Amino acid sequence: MAARDSRITNRSLILIDGYRFRVKSKRLTTEYIQCCGCEGLICNVSGKINENGQWELSGDHHHPPPANEIKKDAFKDRLWRNVVTSQENIRHIYDSTAEEDLQSAILVPFASVQRSMARWRQQTRPPIPSTLFEYATLLNNDQWKRFRMYNGGTLTVRTAVIDNQTSVTVLCDPAFLASLQINELYIDATFKICPLTPKIHQLLTIMGQIDDVDSS
Ligand SMILES: [Zn+2]
User: Fold this and answer.
1) What b/e sequence results for 91-113 when a residue is b if at least 16 CB atoms lie within 10 Å of its CB, and e otherwise?
2) φ, ψ dihedrals at 96, nearest 5°
3) Count of beta carbons in the 10 Å neighbourhood of residue 33
4) Is pLDDT of 122 > 90?
5) What are the φ/ψ torsions at residue 74 (nearest 5 degrees)?
6) CA atoms within 13 A on the CB side of 81
7) Rounded distance, CA 79 to CA 127, Å?
8) Poorest-confidence range of 15-19, 48-52, 142-146, 165-169?
9) Which residues make up the environment of ion ligand 1, defined by Cβ < 5 Å?
C-alpha cells in the first residue's frame, strides 16, 4: 500500500517505497503517477495506482530515495496542521514546530515557507461578517468552531433581537458559569474599542470574582 500525503495543498503526493510520486491525471478510480525525482533530478519512472493503493510502475529510478524531500514534506505537513488549527502568529507556529524537529526545520527555513504559511492562514480564515447574525452563524459553524474554543472549554454564541435596530450577541461558556458560585459581579462597557464591521456600538464584559481571582 502507498502512503498518501495528507496535506491539502496544490499537489497530491504519494509515497511508494521511499520515492515521492505526484498524480499527473486521473481516470475513473485510477490515478496516473510520475516520480518527482530527487533534488532537481528529473526521473522518468511513472505508473498507475488504483483506489485500493495497488500500483504498477515502469522504469528505474536513477537517483537515491529523496529522504530530505520526504522530511521537508512531513515538516510542512506539521506546519500546515498547526497553522489551520491555531490562532498564533505564523512566526510563533514555525518556531514551536521547529523546536520539535530541528533537523527537518534546517531543511525548511522560515523564509522559504513564510508565504505558504500566510496563504494557508488566509485560506482558513472565515469571511468578515457584515451583521451580528452572520457573526454568530459563522462562529457556530463547525468549520470555525476553533474560534469558540479556549483552554478551559467552549464558548456558546447567540444573537438576540432587541428591536428593529438593535441586536445583541452574547458569548459565554454556560458550563463554566454553572460551575461557579459568584457573589460579586463587575460590568465594564466601552463604546470606544468596538469592531467597525459589523458595526458594533458597545462592547460589554461581565466579570465575576471567585476566590479573590477575577474571572470573566
Ligand atoms: Zn524516481
Assistant:
1) eebbeebbeeeeebbeebeeeeb
2) -70, -35
3) 26
4) no
5) -65, -40
6) 10
7) 23
8) 142-146
9) 35, 43, 45, 61
Ligand 1 centroid – CA 56 distance (Å): 14
Quick one: cell of 187?
460590568
Separation of CA 63 and ligand 1 centre (Å): 6
| Residue 3 bridge partners (DSSP) | 15
Cell numbers at residue 139, please? 462562529
> For residue 73, what are the CA distances in angstroms to 23, 46, 85?
16, 20, 18
Residue pair 14/49 in contact (Cβ under 8 Å)? The answer is yes
Give SS3 for 118. helix
Strand order of the sheet with strand 19-27? 3-4, 13-16, 19-27, 30-35, 46-49, 55-58
Q: Which single residue is written with the C-alpha cell 533534488?
A: 39
CA 207 – CA 158 distance, rounded (Å):
18
Residue type, 35: C
Question: How do residues 38-85 score in pLDDT, each as one tens digit?
Answer: 888 899 999 999 988 899 999 999 999 999 988 998 899 899 989 988
Sorting pLDDT into bands at 50, 70 and 90, what band is 9?
very low
Alpha-carbon radius of gyration of the chain = 25
CA 42 to ligand 1 center in whole angstroms = 7
Ligand 1 center–CA 204 separation, angstroms? 61
| Chain segment 136-158, per-residue pLDDT in tens | 999 999 888 888 998 889 999 99
pTM of the entire predicted model:
0.59
Phi first, then psi, for residue 72 (nearest 5°) are: -60, -45
